Every structure is written in structure tokens, then in C-alpha cells.
Automatic annotation (TrEMBL):
<dbReference type="InterPro" id="IPR019364">
    <property type="entry name" value="Mediatior_Med8_fun/met"/>
</dbReference>
<dbReference type="GO" id="GO:0000978">
    <property type="term" value="F:RNA polymerase II cis-regulatory region sequence-specific DNA binding"/>
</dbReference>
<dbReference type="Pfam" id="PF10232">
    <property type="entry name" value="Med8"/>
</dbReference>
<feature type="region of interest" description="Disordered">
    <location>
        <begin position="199"/>
        <end position="238"/>
    </location>
</feature>
<comment type="subunit">
    <text>Component of the Mediator complex.</text>
</comment>
<dbReference type="GO" id="GO:0003712">
    <property type="term" value="F:transcription coregulator activity"/>
</dbReference>
<keyword id="KW-0539">Nucleus</keyword>
<dbReference type="GO" id="GO:0016592">
    <property type="term" value="C:mediator complex"/>
</dbReference>
<dbReference type="GO" id="GO:0006357">
    <property type="term" value="P:regulation of transcription by RNA polymerase II"/>
</dbReference>
<protein>
    <recommendedName>
        <fullName>Mediator of RNA polymerase II transcription subunit 8</fullName>
    </recommendedName>
</protein>
<dbReference type="GO" id="GO:0070847">
    <property type="term" value="C:core mediator complex"/>
</dbReference>
<comment type="function">
    <text>Component of the Mediator complex, a coactivator involved in the regulated transcription of nearly all RNA polymerase II-dependent genes. Mediator functions as a bridge to convey information from gene-specific regulatory proteins to the basal RNA polymerase II transcription machinery. Mediator is recruited to promoters by direct interactions with regulatory proteins and serves as a scaffold for the assembly of a functional preinitiation complex with RNA polymerase II and the general transcription factors.</text>
</comment>
<comment type="similarity">
    <text>Belongs to the Mediator complex subunit 8 family.</text>
</comment>
<keyword id="KW-0804">Transcription</keyword>
<keyword id="KW-0805">Transcription regulation</keyword>
<keyword id="KW-0010">Activator</keyword>
Length: 255
């Protein structure tokens, strides 16, 4: 019996110590949020949150230890109730509770839920018991269908987000691997270029000069510039500019 009492006292001391540490950490984080919000950054807030999470994990390990007694099996009973001010109680509770009267005991030492909550729970249990097996199976199937549809939508949205993130991370290609060699060959060696000849350049001879009518008087007029021209076989004055027109069928050297 004494051994169990010692284990219980040790567990209670460890639990009280962990709870006090947890209370201090939560108070410090609340103080920073309320008073140091201008200089508080996200990494510091995450550090405080990680500290609180670690303290909760440590408290859970103590309560779930095999050597720790099951505290839920113990009952807390008030030894004395009085409506007067209790300084020791106020000091222990840090001013949160100053009296231990009949009005406070049902709230702090309640082992059953409140009457309103208990009534609501009873109504829900009665409603659940009135549902038949077939109706329950239909409701479960409908719920599974809705959950599956939502799951598919979430997966599709995640795939789209991942694909968009992957496309944004890579640099956009601004050139074509197939067109670049063709363009370089066309510029440097003329590969793929075709030489086109105007239709008027196929006919040789200078443009026709002014013609004299049958009743015209005076010397014949030559081409502009005072250069006398010779009459061709068709009565046209040949031009003094010599042209060298190649045949249209000749291949272009760059073709």
C-alpha cells in the first residue's frame, strides 16, 4: 500500500511539474502574440509551438506509463465547503478561484456532463437507435460516395497544382530545334532559297520609243538624252543600255 502511494505521489509531482511548464510556455506565447506582435516573426512562433507540443507529448508519456496509476479510478471529494474567502486557495489557483462554495463545486468536480448536454446526447442516441439497418447502410453508402467524389476532386486539383508548379520551375523554350539548322543553312549557304524572275524580264529588247505618223514632218525624234538610236526591224528605237538576261531555265547557284 505504501509503495502504491509513493508511486502515486511521484506521478502526481511529475504531472504537476509538466503542467506548470506547459502553463508557462502557453502564457509566454500568448504574451508575445498580444504585446510583441510587431516584432514577432513566424520562425519564433513555430519554435514556441514546437516547445508546447513537446511538453504535451512528455505529459502524455507520463500518464500512459505502465508504472503510473490510473488516475481516473480515483475520486476527488471536497472535505470542506465555505463561502468565505480562502487565501490559500486563491494563491494555489493564482487568483482564479477564491472561494470553494456549493455553487462552484458542481462545476469544478462534475463527473457527469451538464444537464442540457446530457439531454442532447440522449436525443441523438435515441435517434440513432431508431434508424433501421437498411437505412443505415444506405446512408453509409451515400456518405462513402460523397467522400470518394471529394477525394477525387482533391487529387485532381493536387495533380494540376503540381503540374503547374513543375511547368513554372522550368525555363520556357524560345527556339525550335528543327527550325534552327534550316535557318542557319539558308543564311550561310542559301539552302532552300528559290530565285524568282519577273515575267517582264523574259522578253528581250528595249522599251518602244515614240513613233512617227505617216503625215508627220520634221526629223525623227530619238530617245531622251540626245543619243541617236537606230531603228529596229519593227520600227522601234533600240536602247543604248545593254542588258544580259539569262535564261529562265538556268539553275541558281544557291538552289
Amino acid at each position: 500500500m505504501q509503495r502504491e502511494e509513493k508511486q502515486q505521489d511521484a506521478v502526481l509531482e511529475a504531472v504537476i511539474s509538466r503542467v506548470n511548464d506547459l502553463k508557462t510556455s502557453i502564457g509566454a506565447m500568448i504574451f508575445k502574440v498580444e504585446n510583441e506582435y510587431e516584432t514577432l516573426n513566424w520562425p519564433n512562433f513555430l519554435d514556441n509551438f514546437a516547445l508546447i507540443s513537446g511538453q504535451l507529448t512528455s505529459l502524455t508519456k507520463i500518464l500512459s506509463n505502465e508504472k503510473a496509476p490510473a488516475l481516473r479510478n480515483f475520486t476527488v471529494l471536497p472535505l470542506m465547503l465555505k463561502p468565505d474567502l480562502d487565501e490559500n486557495l486563491a494563491r494555489v489557483t493564482e487568483g482564479r478561484l477564491t472561494t470553494f462554495s456549493h455553487d462552484i463545486v458542481p462545476d469544478y468536480l462534475r463527473t457527469k456532463p451538464e444537464p442540457d448536454a446530457e439531454l442532447k446526447m440522449m436525443q441523438l442516441e435515441h435517434k440513432a437507435n431508431c434508424v433501421t439497418y437498411e437505412t443505415a447502410q444506405k446512408q453509409v453508402a451515400a456518405m462513402n460516395k460523397v467522400v470518394g467524389h471529394v477525394w477525387d476532386l482533391v487529387n485532381k486539383a493536387r495533380e494540376e497544382w503540381e503540374s503547374e508548379a513543375g511547368s513554372r520551375s522550368g525555363a520556357a523554350q524560345t527556339f525550335s530545334l528543327t527550325d534552327t539548322p534550316l535557318l542557319v543553312a539558308a543564311i550561310s549557304m542559301g539552302k532552300g532559297l528559290k530565285h524568282t524572275v519577273a515575267p517582264g524580264a523574259m522578253m528581250g529588247g528595249p522599251p518602244p520609243g515614240p513613233q512617227r505618223g505617216p503625215g508627220a514632218l520634221g526629223p525623227p525624234q530619238g530617245p531622251p538624252g540626245g543619243i541617236p538610236g537606230q531603228m529596229g526591224p519593227m520600227g522601234k528605237a533600240p536602247s543604248a543600255i545593254k542588258t544580259n538576261i539569262k535564261a529562265a531555265g538556268q539553275m541558281h547557284p544557291y538552289r
